[in-house]
Write a structure and sequence with these properties.
The chain is of the alpha+beta class. The protein is built from six helices and seven strands, in the order ααααβαββββββα. The N and C termini lie far apart (about 75 Å).
């Protein structure tokens, strides 16, 4: 589409290039439409060729302000992995199971009777994070389930359920334990916490 096919585009270009105080309105035709003040103030070169409503700033933004920013991949391999993860999340149809998180601390006799340690009732004095995942309709045995634990995430995949859960604290992967109760159909994870100030709390 050419710029000269629509006379309104030429007038918008004239208003853009000529300041209002230097504009001579003596040669202006009476029947010529005058651009509104809001359109004239918001006029930029990007508005040429658009509708008058879009020139006045009424167009919808392409992205919302609250949209999360994706990390920029450093290589083509990271980009491919990121695309594969996003495609898997979009195509995921399995149910998200219910889960329960509790903290646990190892209390000895010196803490219970003598109160010699620095432990308190706060979660900062807890060594482990207990994660109970309920799988009521799952008939698959535990050795057929796909469980992956990283420092900051737990990923559980079964034929019926899928849980990808970010953890509130980093955990020590080498000291984590998992136990599945087939009668209750409940998976219990004992995650050893690894925090910045644990040397102060213990």
């Amino acid at each position: 589409m050419s710029l000269f096919e629509n006379p309104d585009h030429i007038r918008m270009l004239r208003d853009l290039l000529t300041p209002p105080e230097e504009r001579d309105n003596s040669d202006t035709d009476d029947d010529e439409p005058i651009a509104s003040t809001g359109i004239r103030n918001n006029l930029t070169p990007a508005n040429i060729g658009k509708d008058s409503n879009e020139a006045g700033g009424k167009q919808k933004p392409a992205q919302t302000e609250n949209a999360p920013e994706r990390p920029v991949p450093a290589s083509i391999e990271e980009w491919q992995q990121q695309q594969a993860r996003e495609d898997a999340e979009v195509l995921e149809t399995r149910q998200r199971p219910e889960y329960n998180m509790t903290y646990r601390q190892a209390v000895g006799t010196e803490d219970l009777y003598l109160q010699m340690g620095n432990r308190t009732n706060a979660t900062a004095s807890c060594e482990d994070l207990l994660l109970e995942i309920l799988l009521p309709n799952e008939t698959t045995p535990a050795d057929k389930m796909d469980l992956s634990i990283t420092e900051d995430e737990v990923d559980l995949a079964t034929p019926i359920y899928r849980l990808k859960l970010p953890l509130p604290h980093k955990v020590n992967v080498d000291r984590c334990k998992a136990k599945y109760d087939a009668e209750l159909r409940k998976l219990c994870l004992i995650l050893r916490l690894q925090r910045e100030f644990d040397y102060v709390n213990f």
